[in-house]
Amino acid sequence: MPIIGNNKSLLLRQIETSNVDINKLEELLKTYEDLTLSDLQSVISDEMYTLLLDKTRDPQEKALWVECCEKPWENSELNNTFEIENAITTINISIQKVTKYIERYPNGPKYNEANILYSDLLKEKTNLENKKQIIFDGEKEKADWENLDKGNYAALRNYLRKYPNSVHKDEIDDLMWTNTINAPRLQNFERYLQDLPNGRHAQEAQNAINEFSEWEEVKRSGDIFLVDDYRDNHPQSPFKGEIDRVYYDLSDKVMEDMQNNPADFKYNDVLRLIQADIFKDWELIDKGLMTEASWDTLVELETVKEELPDLKNFVMNSVEGTAPGATDVFLFGTPGTGKTCMLMGLVGANGSQFQKGEDQLNYSLNLQQYGGNYAAALQSYIYAGITPGSTHGSFVTTFHGNIQEKPRKGNVIDHRINLVEMSGEEFARRIADNEKATVSFEDMGTGATRVMSNTNRKIFFIIVDPTVEKVKITFLEDVRDEEGNVIDQRVRKKYIDQRIILSKFVSLFELPENQEIMKRVDAIHFIVTKSDFLDKEGERGTVAAELLRNKYQATVTSLKNYCENSKRINRSTKYSPQVFTFSLGKFYLGDIFEFDASETHKIINAIRIISGGEKKKSWTDILKDWFG
After folding, report:
1. Which helix (H) or strand (E) holds 548?
2. CA 37 → CA 22, 30, 62, 115, 226, distances in Å?
3. How far apart are CA 338 and CA 424, in angstroms?
4. Helix (H, G, I), strand (E, B) or coil at 458
5. What angle do CA 379, 295, 380 make, to 5 degrees?
6. Which segments within 298-445 are labelled E, that is strand?
7. For the segment 551-597, what is each residue's pLDDT rounded down to a tens digit?
8. Tell me, what's the pLDDT at 231?
9. CA distances (Å), 55 to each of 12, 27, 43, in order?
10. What is the CA radius of gyration of the chain?
């Protein structure tokens, strides 16, 4: 093939200035070895150059380039890792073809374009790989989210650390806060702030930390009124969930306590509960804790009490008040066990006519004539349906009565009795001061031993409160200056186990110095007061006996052994102390009650049976005595 040599420039100028057709140009390229298509590019039109380029290309080169330019993945959605993986595989094939083209045709017409295409394909592959990773991470996060324990703070925190840019970031923040306030402790709020210092609830967490001490003090108090006030004053508190829970737990507890022992809820307690809107009056009525009548009494209670006598004016240190020739009935018990309420029951049953047994035995208690002002004062409380409250102090109070028995056949029998109430407060206080202290009958109240030392026959009733284990003893203590002078008094409270007090009391019976008293004792029995809280009425005696066996077994056993050794006390019951139950009746909130004398009747009958009676002389007996 000839060479054009130095004439190439002349030829190119002629081509540029002449209208040479494409066939002629193709012939020139084939004729001269040193004439190339690139030499013609600057002297012919682009259209002519493109046509000429195509006519002169190697068919294999042309076919390979067409394959290199194919992009079958471009029209695909590529929304999942499977589609993306297929696209990447196709791009790798294209990269291999472009690499082959570059290596095979370094002077090929598409060489430069092939290098650009190679770079573009690498970028496209990288983009698809990144997209694949993003989709893969998203699918994994979705699976992790579905399996995430959203009630576990640590799991939520770990998820957020793993996926810091999660679409659920705000939701996780809220869930972490919910978990925090569900367990509102100081360290939990501090943990939230540490994990999410700029979190959506950071300010709430800081407020909670600031409020923590105040709420903890209120919560520890266990006082529903303090919790109620805090709840009203902190409606947006971060502790709201716990505040509500504590409030409703306490209100449920108060309701349970009211149902178990409504008499423990005094006037101020009930009104305050209603005024604070913790309970509605109709709600307490529906629960049977009040009636319309008891509610009316409660509302007017302060006015009603002003019209009732103050028992302190009638409680006397009566050391010479027992009538001779009668049976002394002693009521022993710790403070608050219900001795005064039992006297109220006896006064309330005053004058009633009872029947006992198949022989229609009639008997009645008469305190109206013998009871005096104290009995009359107690009776006014019975009529009002209000308890007088505790009678603090060391005292012995006595009043007289008569149980008159009218058998169907035979003469009327009078059972003259002296009812003796022993305060028990000083006795319990001595034991509270020192459980091993020496105690005596005299500690039951001023002048107790002299009252007990008369020649009357005696019955002892030991009063037990089934609703308490620890007895509260309230007393005044002298405050002295450095020189020992009394300058003031302060109210003190002490608590002592009722079992210890009863055990100490029973142990007095065996003391040598008390045997002169004990030889005139015919019976010693238990009375379990507040029996309306024991069980259904028909089962109270069984429940009371079981209570004594379970809680006071040592005392009961000791007393039975003592009676058996005496060969006299409780002989009619085979030396076993009997258990009687007592209640004033149906109690409602505010210590208001409806009097029911049924259990009082049983105690009166027991006294009648134990006490010696004196037959009244009939007209026939009087005539016989008169005429000899």
Report:
1. helix 540-551
2. 12, 10, 16, 20, 101
3. 11
4. strand
5. 10
6. 327-333, 353-356, 361-366, 396-406, 413-422
7. 888 899 999 999 999 999 998 889 999 999 898 888 888 888 888 88
8. 92
9. 20, 11, 18
10. 53
**How far, in whole angstroms, is CA 354 from its chain's centroid?**
48
Beta-ladder partners of 403: 365, 415
Summarised one tens digit per residue, pLDDT across range 53-100 is 777 777 888 888 888 888 877 767 777 777 788 888 888 888 898 898
**DSSP helix/strand/coil, 234:** coil
d(CA 580, CA 599): 8
Residue 346 and residue 582: Cα distance in Å, rounded? 11
- In the chain, residues under CATH classification 3.40.50.300 are 323-469+501-615
| H helices present in 354-447, as ranges | 372-384, 425-433
What lies within 8 Å, CB to CB, of 42 at 6+ separation is: 12
Closest CA to 268 of 605, 590, 17: 590
Residue with tokens 């998820």: 159
CA distance linking residue 327 with residue 607, whole number of Å: 9
Q: Token pair of 218, please? A: 């209120």
Tokens of 508: 């007095």
pTM for the structure as a whole: 0.63
* 612, 617, 618, 620 alpha-carbon torsion, rounded to 10°: 130
As to burial, measured by CB atoms within 10 angstroms (0-12 exposed, 13-18 middle, 19+ buried), residue 92 is: exposed
What CATH architecture applies to the domain 323-469+501-615?
Answer: 3-Layer(aba) Sandwich (3.40)
Question: Helix or strand or coil: residue 538?
Answer: helix
Determine the 3-state secondary structure of 453 from DSSP.
Answer: coil
Phi-psi domain of 495 (left: phi exceeds 0; alpha: psi -120 through 50; beta: other): beta
Cβ atoms within 10 A of the Cβ of 529, count?
26
3-state DSSP call for residue 382? helix
498 closest CA partner among 522, 528, 477: 528
Using CA atoms, how far apart are residues 301 and 387, in angstroms rounded to an integer? 11
Residues 6+ apart with CB under 8 A from 24: none
Cβ-based neighbours of 335, under 8 Å, separated by 6 or more: 390, 392, 423, 424, 425, 428, 471, 472, 473, 474
Q: Which of 551, 557, 547 is nearest to 581 (CA)?
A: 547
